[in-house]
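Collaborator request, handled under Task 6.
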Amino acid sequence: MSLEDRAKATGKNLEGKAQEAMGNVTGDPEDKAEGKAKQAEAQARHAGEDLKDKAKETIDRA
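Structure tokens returned to the collaborator:
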């Protein structure tokens, strides 16, 4: 995973956490849901890129 992709996924996660927190403060369920969705998207990006990294490591060892 490139450093740029990791930074983007981390940024998306932080954005989601902030939006969820704002939803908690304001009581806006839509903000909370969107924040959680952004966090889930970031986790999925990280997981997909981690799989790519593992595959590359396996190929490099072969």
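The cover message to the collaborator said: "The CA atoms of residues 52 and 58 lie 10 Å apart. The chain has two helices and no strands. Please let us know whether this matches your experimental observations."
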